[in-house]
């Protein structure tokens, strides 16, 4: 039977049976009748249904994209769905999908022979953890919360209220995700001197070149736009939400390809300059960088291979960012103690894959949820 002879209701059912938004758009472009039917139908309802399958939970994305300083972060918000809100949700969801690829590589980093793809339920838990951690970042890792106020009782209580919205198992999922993000930060975005030296000699096993490491503190006070022309902050940021508009990766341009090698070794570049210090200095740098949200970390991983580029991005965030480590870990410990849980045991269980996003004993169980 020709497609043109099928009832409109059947064709709409085909649209609603798609797994991704891209599939819907491609299907609607195949012929005039499908395009006409799709544009005459309730497109928004179809998109929202499929976005829930592809990027869900949409409820958590809505909490993230509607968060602002006028309302406490722990209060549940509702918003009427529209195309503008859906576009924001899709952008957030696509970031989460990229982490679905990175997570297994890092989770099975040491026992890579057992590495596998995530199940649908595990991908759902990973996305949920990303949206919730991102919400925490947008609410508390901003200029309003500097290093001088982070330990004020009312500030700690405010942060803990958000974490109290989630069960211990759900908080373990976020800790699981944070471990993976931390690995990306300390090994890819801000590698230590030791990591640079190890990777350099692995790439050039026969060289006798001695790397020159910078013994001074990071974040030099040079022009933030001088990093190979890489960083160009938006000249007209929206004052309503300056945290997103002035510091968000979408407002920066990429560097020329010829500068995109961390291990380029010539008169103008020593790979040792790419190190972020040894042990204690590197630890504090990583703590600062863990205030970046999952979208910012992913963007820096993909577009800022050089230390100078990362430093320029950090300077664009403002002075509040420096020497002001992330607070989720401390708040997580606070909430676990309030619940009578042993923090180290919880983290060990996450590392052993007993709880968290991946649970080895339940990975292929039909009861997994």
Characterization of this structure:
The radius of gyration is 23 Å and the shape is globular. Helices cover 53% and strands 0% of the residues. The protein has 369 residues and is mostly helical. Residues 216-247, 250-259 and 362-368 have low confidence and may be disordered. It starts with 7 loop residues before the first helix and ends in an 18-residue tail after the last helix. It has 2 domains: 3-41; 74-362, no CATH class. The chain has helices at residues 8-16, 21-28, 32-40, 43-55, 58-65, 83-107, 120-140, 153-163, 168-189, 193-203, 242-247, 280-289, 294-303, 307-317, 328-338, 343-351. It has 16 helices and no strands.
Give, in order, the helices and strands.
HHHHHHHHHHHHHHHH
Tell me the Rg in angstroms: 23 Å
Question: How big a fraction of the residues is strand?
Answer: under 5%
Number of helices: 16
Helix content: 40-55%
Largest sheet: none
How many strand segments? 0
How many independent structural domains?
Answer: 2
Low-confidence parts: 216-247, 250-259, 362-368
Overall average pLDDT = 83
Spatial separation of the terminal alpha carbons: 41 Å
Characterize the overall form: globular
Given the helix and strand composition, which structural class is it?
Answer: mainly alpha
Protein name: F-box domain-containing protein
InterPro entries: F-box-like_dom_sf
């Amino acid at each position: 039977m020709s497609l043109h002879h099928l009832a409109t209701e059947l064709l709409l059912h085909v649209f609603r049976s798609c797994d991704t938004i891209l599939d819907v758009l491609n299907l609607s472009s195949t012929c005039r009748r499908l395009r006409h039917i799709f544009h005459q139908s309730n497109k928004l309802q179809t998109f929202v249904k499929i976005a829930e399958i592809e990027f869900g939970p949409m409820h958590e994305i809505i909490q993230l994209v509607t968060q602002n300083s006028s309302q406490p972060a722990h209060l549940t918000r509702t918003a009427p769905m529209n195309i503008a809100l859906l576009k924001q949700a899709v952008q957030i969801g696509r970031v989460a999908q990229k982490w679905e690829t990175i997570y297994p590589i890092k989770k099975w980093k040491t026992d890579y022979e057992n590495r596998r793809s995530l199940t649908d339920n595990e991908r759902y838990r990973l996305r949920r953890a990303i949206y919730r951690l991102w919400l925490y970042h947008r609410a508390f890792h901003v200029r309003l919360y500097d290093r001088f106020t982070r330990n004020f009782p009312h500030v700690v209580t405010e942060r803990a209220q958000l974490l109290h919205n989630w069960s211990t198992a759900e908080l373990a999922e976020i800790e699981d995700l944070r471990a993976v993000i931390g690995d990306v930060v300390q090994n890819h975005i801000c590698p230590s001197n030791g990591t640079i030296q190890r990777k350099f000699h692995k790439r050039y096993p026969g060289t006798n070149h001695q790397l020159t490491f910078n013994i001074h503190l990071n974040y030099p006070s040079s022009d933030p736009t001088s990093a190979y022309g890489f960083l160009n902050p938006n000249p007209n940021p929206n004052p309503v939400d300056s945290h997103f508009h002035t510091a968000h990766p979408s407002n920066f341009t990429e560097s020329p390809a010829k500068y995109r090698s961390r291990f380029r070794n010539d008169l103008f570049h020593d790979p040792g300059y790419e190190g972020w210090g040894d042990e204690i200095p590197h630890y504090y740098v990583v703590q600062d960088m863990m205030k970046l949200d999952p979208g910012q970390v992913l963007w820096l991983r993909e577009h800022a291979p050089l230390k100078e580029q990362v430093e320029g991005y950090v300077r664009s965030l403002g002075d509040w960012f420096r020497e002001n480590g992330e607070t989720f870990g401390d708040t997580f410990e606070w909430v676990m103690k309030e619940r009578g849980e042993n923090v180290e045991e919880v983290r060990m269980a996450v590392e052993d894959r007993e709880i968290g996003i991946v649970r080895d004993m339940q990975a292929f169980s039909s009861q997994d949820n």
